[in-house]
Amino acid sequence: MIIRREVHLKNYTVGMPKENDFEIVQVSMPEPKKEEVLVCNIYMSVDPYMRGRMTNKESYIPPFQPGKPLEGGCIGQVVKSLNKHFNAGDYVFSMLGWREYFISNGNDLLKIDHEVAPIQAYLGVMGIPGLTAYVGLLDIAKLKENESVFVSAASGAVGSVVCQIAKIKGCYVIGSTGSDKKAAWLLKEARIDNIINYKRSNDLVKDVAKLLPNGIDVYFENVGGKHLEAALENMNSFGRIALCGLISQYNLTKPMPNPGNLMLAIQKRITMKGFIVSDHLDKMPKFRLDMGKWIKEGRIKWQETVVEGIQNAPRAFIELFEGKNLGKMLVKIGSPS
């Protein structure tokens, strides 16, 4: 019998998440039965979208249930297998994070190739965040070569990949981030053309205009609020906006007013389209082929912020909203004993 730790949602969250909204629980696990496998989680992901599941509201994905373990992307290793499709030692992706071990019949597992990229990259650049950037930029925003691109939250797991794909396509790219350290990484490693530290900006509209005097063709939206207003003000006619996330609004206790200049979307004939990456999972094989090629060529770089221990997963999640991560925020749970 294995004793595992898992993280439960203690109560629905109001405003900014707090550590006492979570609970670390110990549970016992049986041995796997016929056609089942026992998986030890090694890395788990914490992502902004999870905040929406911590509120009892209808959305595109059901809310977490208080008193039950949370869920999310994770990479584990098969420890024991009674399933002919998996061998002990296989690395697998699943959505059964926030726990140290789990038993599966294999239907919710996806084998990953650790020779293409490190296993934790399948939670970031080779995983859902990377696919989100790929689909949002190429399919939703319909990026063309040599366009001007503005990316908010440019140093995050999604934004940093958006920036680099746009550069691969020959575009002029500026990004917004909240620290000099993140800005330096984007300029040196991601090789984007310029950066705005929004925390130092007195007028985001003017700062964007200075860096993109010929306007914005594509805006990749991860933040909302003042960033969306600045983008609308500087968009070219017939520009496109991919609405991926609005992290500035996730912890609000009352709705935020619409951008005061939303009328510009009509005047400039701007296309604004929201998307959910789970509607585009059919693009995963093509995405992984392209991303694997770009990684091999050295054209894609990434950063990870790794927090040790499942007991620190709630703190890691909260730090997403405090802007303390550079690149993908991960929790290192452990390794098979």
CA-based shape: globular
Strand content of the residues, in percent? 25-35%
Total of DSSP H or I helical runs spanning 4+ residues: 8
What top-tier CATH class of the largest domain fits best? Alpha Beta
CATH superfamily of the largest domain: Medium-chain alcohol dehydrogenases, catalytic domain
Number of domain units: 2
The main sheet comes to: 7 strands, mixed
- Portion in helices: 10-25%
Indicate the CATH architecture of the largest domain.
Alpha-Beta Complex
Any idea what the radius of gyration is? 21 Å
Secondary-structure-derived class: alpha/beta
Assembly status: single chain
Folded structure, characterized:
- The protein has 2 domains: 2-124 and 303-332, Alpha-Beta Complex (Quinone Oxidoreductase, Chain A, domain 1); 128-279, Rossmann fold, CATH 3.40.50.
- It is 22% helix and 26% strand.
- It has helices spanning 128-140, 159-168, 180-188, 204-211, 226-234, 264-267, 284-296, 313-321, and strands spanning 2-9, 22-29, 37-45, 74-81, 91-94, 101-104, 110-111, 148-151, 172-177, 194-197, 216-221, 235-243, 271-274, 304-308, 328-332.
- Strands 3, 4, 5, 6, 7, 14 and 15 form a 7-stranded mixed beta sheet that branches.
- β11, α5 (226-234) and β12 form a beta-alpha-beta unit.
- The longest helix is centred in the middle third of the chain and has 13 residues, at 128-140.
